[in-house]
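Re: that chain you flagged

S.,

Sorry for the slow reply, it's been a week of failed gels. I finally had a moment to sit down with the sequence you sent. For the record, here it is as I used it:
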Amino acid sequence: LKAIKQVSKEFEAVFLKQILENGLKDVKLTEDSGSNIIKGMYIDALSQNGGGLGIEKMLTEHILKQQKGLL
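Prediction finished late last night. Pasting the structure tokens below so you have them in one place:
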């Protein structure tokens, strides 16, 4: 169960990071040359600490239901 939750959490983080990168690709946070670095750090922080979409929980529940069906 712990491994399933960890994989689900990692999947949600990757998914959220992809959404943020795509949504913010044309946004400049600052006018200096470090804008992309700052934006990358911002996206990483949000995607790693986000968890608010509920994908982790839904995916974990789905995997557990699939496993029960195979037993």
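What I noticed first: The two ends are 15 Å apart (CA to CA).

Talk soon,
D.
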